[in-house]
Amino acid sequence: MTSAFRATGIGYFVEAYSYLALVKDKVPETEFGTAAPSSQPTLCPICGGTPVSDFRKNDCLILKCTTCGGKTTAGTFGTEHLNATYDDDYFFGGGAGYENYLEEAELLRQQGVRYADVLEKYLPQGRLLDVGCAAGFLQAGFEERGWSTTGLEPNASMVSHAQEKLGLHVVQGSLESVGELPPFDAVCLIQVIGHFHNLTQAMQSVSELTREDGLCLIEYWRMDSWVAKMFGKNWHDYSPPSVLHWFSRSSLDELMQNHGFAPVTGGIPKKYISAGHAASLAEHALQSTPLPGFLTKPLRISPKTLKLRYPAFDLEWRLYRRTRSA
Ligand SMILES: [Zn+2]
């Protein structure tokens, strides 16, 4: 431990409040197991199977595939969804996003270094693409370890920060619209795979952007975790239309296999968040509970260097190797 210290207990405390608020969300009842209306996608974007209605959340209908079990949001989404989801308010507006994303710099850099350790067990340092790189903090961790990185990010403010403050190579855009780039040795999708408005097109790009025998690292919220099962439709990651797709480990493996990747290994990330971000999340959660707001005061008066271990029972990473063209 350096100037920061771990406060695992407080982390669990924050998580408990978040779930408490989510449990109070009013989720309209809906018909279960009925066929999806014709205006909704007729094929599962993971396996091509048939989706049926599962439940409603935030005025969106969530569909579940009868073949692979993966879930997706009904309807068609385009670039306007991307721009609206990742505007500056997401990174600086608090609530379910970030109060000040730039304060996460050091924690994300350290996470980049940890993920470089993972990749280097299977591949020497090479060229890496970080999809949804935001301000480039994770990317900076890979650079520190000797990787030659490119970031891909839709938000203009985040791209400017990465380019001007950190001197990183970042392309503004998304996987669904990215132009031609030479294939990379490794592609990272850290908590972004659930957000693609065109999952099939995005994964086709991932396949094309990863060289043969190259690696793809995915960190995702796991739908078949005990936490997700316990909270059911009130699980925090069921938050459409920001999140559009949800995966179990097996359905993620199936998606990747369908795009030319074979699973290599996986693990649980050591995730930390800043005290400020934790306070913002907790205050957002408390808005919908009868609990008093002063409960977050200890987080507000905590030093900026305080970092909290996030109890990520429902988060994991998976590493895949590209074995063939999709
Ligand atoms: Zn499916």
Explain this structure.
The protein is an alpha/beta fold. It has two domains: 1-27 and 274-309; 82-220 and 251-271 and 315-326, Vaccinia Virus protein VP39 (Rossmann fold). Helix content is 32%, strand content 22%. The protein has eleven helices and 13 strands. It has a seven-stranded mixed sheet, with helices on both faces. Strands 1-2-3-9 form a four-stranded antiparallel sheet, with no helix packed on it. Strand 5, helix 6 (156-165) and strand 6 form a beta-alpha-beta unit. The longest helix has 16 residues, at 8-23. The termini are far apart. The relative contact order is 0.17. The model is unreliable at 1-38 (pLDDT under 50). Zinc ion binds at residues 44, 46-47, 49, 65, 67-68, 70.
Which SSEs are present, and which pair or pack?
Layout: H1 8-23, E1 51-57, E2 60-65, E3 71-73, H2 79-85, H3 88-92, H4 105-120, E4 127-131, H5 137-144, E5 148-153, H6 156-165, E6 170-172, E7 184-190, H7 199-209, E8 210-221, H8 226-231, E9 245-246, H9 249-258, E10 261-267, E11 272-274, H10 275-286, H11 297-300, E12 307-309, E13 315-322
Parallel strand pairs: 4-5, 4-7, 5-6, 7-8
Antiparallel strand pairs: 1-2, 2-3, 3-9, 8-13, 10-13, 11-12
Helix pairs in contact: 1-10, 4-5
This protein binds zinc ion (ZN).
Structural class: alpha/beta
CATH topology call of the largest domain:
Rossmann fold
Which percent bin holds the helix content?
25-40%
CATH architecture level-2 label of the largest domain? 3-Layer(aba) Sandwich
Determine the number of helices (DSSP H or I, runs of at least 4 residues): 11
Radius of gyration: 19 Å
**Number of DSSP strand runs:** 13
Tell me the name of the CATH class of the largest domain. Alpha Beta
Q: How many discrete structural domains?
A: 2
Ends: how far apart?
44 Å
Strand fraction equals 15-25%
Biggest sheet descriptor: 7 strands, mixed
Q: Give the SSE string.
A: HEEEHHHEHEHEEHEHEHEEHHEE
The parts where pLDDT drops under 50 for at least 5 residues are 1-38
Q: What gross morphology would you assign?
A: globular
